[in-house]
Please model this.
Amino acid sequence: MLAISRDRMGNVYIFGYFAFDTEILNSFGHLVQW
Model:
């Protein structure tokens, strides 16, 4: 499972499920959890 975060500038961040923290990642923008 990966979490993909796209910030307001359009940059994409990919995190492993082990680092998935919605409070932190939501600050980057829209999230999709696979």
